[in-house]
Amino acid sequence: MAIFPFVAIVGQEALKDALLMSAVEPSIGGVLALGDRGTGKSTAIRALAALLPEIEVVRGCPYRCLPSAPAGLCGVCDRKEAQVSEKIAAPVVDLPLGATEDRVVGALDLERALSRGEKRFEPGLLARANRGFLYIDEVNLLDDHLVDLLLDVAASGENVVEREGLSIRHPAKFVLVGSGNPEEGDLRPQLLDRFGLCVDVRTSTDLAERMEIVRRRDTFEQDPAAFIKDWSRKTAALRKRVVEARARVHQVTLPDAVLAKAVELCLTLGADGLRGELTLMRAARARAALSGETEVSMEKLKSVAPLALRHRLRKDPLDDTDAGIRVERAVSEVFAS
Amino acid sequence: MSPAAAPYTDRQASRETFERIDTARWGQADLAAALLALMPLRLKGAVFEGAAPELAGLLQDRLTQRLGPDAGLHRMPVSITDDRLIGGLDLAATLAAGRPVAETGLLSRADGGVLIVPMAERLPGRAAAQLARVIDTGEVETERDGLSLRAPANFVTLAFADPDEPGERLPAGLGDRLAFGLSLHGVSPARPRPETLTPAVIDAARARLRWVSVPDEVMDALIDAALRLGIHSLRAPAFCIAAARGIAALAGRDEVTDADASLAAELVYASRANVLIERAEPPPPAPEPPDSKDETRDDASRPQPEPDELTELLVEAVRVRVSLDVAARARPARQRARQEVPPGKSGDMVDSRRRGSRIGARAGDPRRDGRLDLLSTLRTAAPWQRIREAPSGGAAISVRASDFRVKRFRHRSEAVVIFVVDASGSSAMNRLAEAKGAIELLLSGCYARRESVALIAFRKEGADLLLPPTRSLTRVKRSLSRLPGGGGTPLAAGIAAAAQLVRIERRKRKAPHVVFLSDGQGNIALDGSPGRERAGQDARDMARRLKSLQEPILFFDISRRPSAQAELISTEMGAIYRPLPVADAARVSRDVRSLLLE
Predict the structure, then answer these.
(1) What phi, psi does B565 have (nearest 5°)?
(2) What's the number of domains chain B is made of?
(3) B427 or B26: which carries more pLDDT confidence?
């Protein structure tokens, strides 16, 4: 099935930004997209697959290891003498609802065990997602224990399997992207702040924008191939930006004054814990890298604050104010001083 | 005479009589089925509300005929399990073959055909989400029981719903993904006319389809109209444009006309419109498609109107459609033939709810983690039989401790707290505010929120479900921000509405709990007539009926001094009685938690 190009998506800037920042700096810790249906959450995330630059992997490695990666990470690559590398599309794994735990974490390869009496590990979806993205649509419908498991692995970057007489650990570094509709049951609060960024996705009520969205969608549906071709130059340009930003992101400096503001902002909002601050800084760095800058400016910090902090506020049942607005208020307060 | 024009002309001709309106209604349903056969991948499906069984059968037949000889018909039962829906391990075949054998699920079998979803309003959220995803991607991905499969699954979905009880709605994610939504309440199977949209007509339209253009102003008007009708999802205008193109193609035109757009808008927008039908207080007694409007529409198709005018016309067409639908639903229940299911009958599942409903199995030790799931355990053990040693003692199957699977139940969590609040008279606002406060506290106070809440308010002549069961604080805030109040006290109607919601929730295998905030003094009888005596009698009858459902009830007496009447009603319904002379949301929430939920 043809995929709608990422660059042709109208609006949804916050979601697109959050995904791009995560593509540049995976350690931001994932993205949670909350919002109404029919807003194109899934479209944006699935479109990412076609946008991301290809990755270089060891041929035949089920975990898609980087050829230059240090030894000891992956049982398969370590055993091979001569490695052949190849380029593959960056994985964006769409976790099917109803997936069972054995297929998510991996399990004993039954066919193999039965036909040859060989004990072999059959990697699961976590292996497939290594070095890419793992997407859970309607995260509120997934079993709690599975969500916890995914968050644990996403945080540690490693999948440890101890079952059926197997003892396996393999790299599983991926960006976890979840989507959900808060009207269909709030998410567990423990879950919320384990995602790095949180985006509130709303349907646009701007007529001109809606017209553009529907028109583009219609043109796409009429002839997907031609539409994708029309947008291919823009796609290539954005892809190049991501590649360059990845190369640059770890050289981006964070001036002391900006760091101080970030800390102050978290304090003001009561967004407790190190997680908020860390995410804020990483996101600001990625944002700066995407803009081709070498230093995080106050502006960049301000722009990522709602994404990084809105889901970390203490919930006050009597305060109706939208979390994003509370963050923005705190931003103007902190930056005014 | 173009094929598509036939139902459209009917629609225009419809005036006072239900019969003719129903013919038009059927014509539209038939047209929807033709459009789905014409563009199955773009339009995805339809939701038909209140269709008589024969009518549903006729629609299915026409659709499969038009899709061609290979199109199969597949039914999706509401209670379908994950492995039947998306596939999994075939237990019998696996045991026989000694190696894992996959079994395909319903959704991949339906590829190229028609998927029927009867009683769609009862489809659990999870199954609806599975279906929604496959509708989006056209593919079933199975990652279960050691199997990893992908199979194409493009089908037309026909969902049939009969949501004539409050709180029963089609899962929103599903309705949004199917192009058409049509109400067929009261359309009798005798009325359908012979087929005009034959497979040959549809084939001709298919060849024409890619050349059909949509004028810019028509497209703009369709998009604008959606927004004016309060439809926020962007899928709707996309469906509408595609449908308009299809209508033009069926009529043998190369360009979409205003009339095509108007018809498409009725088919796609009427069921989605929000601003018009939201709390449409007593539905109009008879349909009133004002003549003036139809005339405007006649005029409009001739001169080329400005986009704004066309938008207005589209909005008006949908508005008329909606008011007709509301009227059809409000007709005497004679034709609708929906009886109430007495408690305890099939579908009620009274005792399964105590245990919670099963949602799957996981590895575990039955002695420690709960009850053994025999089938899943066998499924796990099955592939190993060939290499395991034959079990001693003559057992046929060798099962080891690592094979054990235990049942996972949805936690006790599935409680639904139904608040029934007296919103009559002068103190209405206070009481409602109190209930609102208690609901919010209840939802936010608990760390791992597991209850859902609903709110029924009674005032004036009847009871309204102000808040269908939800766990979402966001939604509570949104829908309770403007609470109505005032008028007489139809206590009996409030109790009756509570009983009805209790039954609906039980059918969804949830554990309903009821909380009343009332002084027990009704003055409006069940039929809406004033008078204390009848009202009191009705209230007591309804209370006894509610009691027979045997669900936990908490009754807050909100009179200034504890009243005998409140206590009487409370006893009649078998409730726990609590006087609440002063408003105190925190106490309500605390009592609900301690007396009812824990």
Answers:
(1) -65, -45
(2) 4
(3) B26
In 3D, which of B521, B514, B509 has the Cα closest to residue B499? Answer: B514
Cross-strand pairs, A253: A295
CATH superfamily, with its number, for domain A28-54+89-201: P-loop containing nucleotide triphosphate hydrolases (3.40.50.300)
Looking at CATH, the fold of the domain delimited by A249-336 is given as Helicase, Ruva Protein; domain 3 (1.10.8)
More confident residue, B84 or A79: B84
Statement to judge: residues B448 and B581 lie in one domain? yes
Complex ipTM tops 0.95: no
Which of A122, A218, A319 to probe by mutation at the B interface, max B CB count within 10 Å?
A218
List the single residue in A with minimal CA-CA distance to B475. Answer: A183
Residue A6 has pLDDT above 90, yes or no: yes
- Structural tokens at position B356: 């919670």
| In contact, B120 and B181? CB cutoff 8 Å | no
Where in the sequence of chain A do the CATH 1.10.8.80 domains occur? Answer: 249-336
Domain boundary among B147, B178, B209: B178
**In which band, very low, low, confident or very high, does the pLDDT at B284 lie, cut at 50, 70 and 90?**
very low
- Same structural domain for residues B360 and B308? no
Residue B441 sits in the same domain as residue B359: no
Residue B287 lies in a domain: yes
Shared-domain flag, residues B212 and B257: yes
Contact, B432 vs B421, CB < 8 A?
yes
Range of the domain at B357: 352-409
Would the pTM count as exceeding 0.80? no
Report whether pLDDT(B474) > 80: no
The verdict on B169 touching A (C-beta cutoff 8 Å) is no
Do B26 and B111 have their domain in common? no
| Among the ranges given (A29-33, B6-10, B559-563), the one the predictor scored with the smallest mean pLDDT | B6-10
Q: Tell whether B144 lies on the interface with A, counting CB pairs under 8 A.
A: yes
B186 in a structural domain: no
Mean pLDDT score of chain A, rounded to an integer?
85
User: Is B392 within the bounds of a domain?
Assistant: yes
The answer as to whether B369 is a domain residue is yes
A187-to-B8, B258, B471, B472 alpha-carbon distances in Å: 46, 45, 9, 9
For A140, the token pair is 């509120």
Task: Enumerate the residues of chain B whose CB falls inside 8 A of the CB of residue A94.
Answer: 137, 141
* Same domain as B207, residue B109: no
Residues B436, B319 share a domain: no
Q: How far is CA B270 from CA A247, B273, B533, in A?
A: 52, 5, 43
Neighbours of A233 (CB within 10 A): 10
Tens digits of per-residue pLDDT, A156-168?
A: 888 988 876 778 8
Residues of chain A with CATH 3.40.50.300: 28-54+89-201
- B138 contacts chain A (CB < 8 A): yes
> What strand order describes the sheet that includes B73-75?
B73-75, B114-117, B156-161, B45-49, B180-183
Residue B276 CA to residue B228 CA, distance in Å, equals 10
**According to the model, what pLDDT value does residue B495 have?**
92
Query: Residue range B284-306: average pLDDT?
Result: 40
pLDDT grade for B296, boundaries at 50, 70 and 90: very low
Q: Is B242 on the interface with A (CB under 8 A)?
A: yes
Q: From the list B241, B359, B470, which residue is nearest A218 (CB)? A: B241
Are B382 and B441 part of one and the same domain?
no
Mean pLDDT (chain B, rounded): 77
Report the alpha-carbon angle B250-B253-B254, nearest 5: 120
Contacts of B472 in chain A (CB under 8 A): 182-186
Q: What tens digit of pLDDT does each residue of B344-385 get?
A: 333 333 333 334 445 566 777 666 666 677 777 777 777 777
pLDDT score of B8: 44
Report the gap between the CA of B399 and the closest CA in chain A (Å): 13
For strand A158-163 and strand A132-136, is the pairing parallel, antiparallel, or unpaired?
Answer: unpaired
pLDDT of B194 reads: 66
Determine the distance in angstroms separating the CA of B115 from the nearest CA of chain A, rounded to an integer.
19
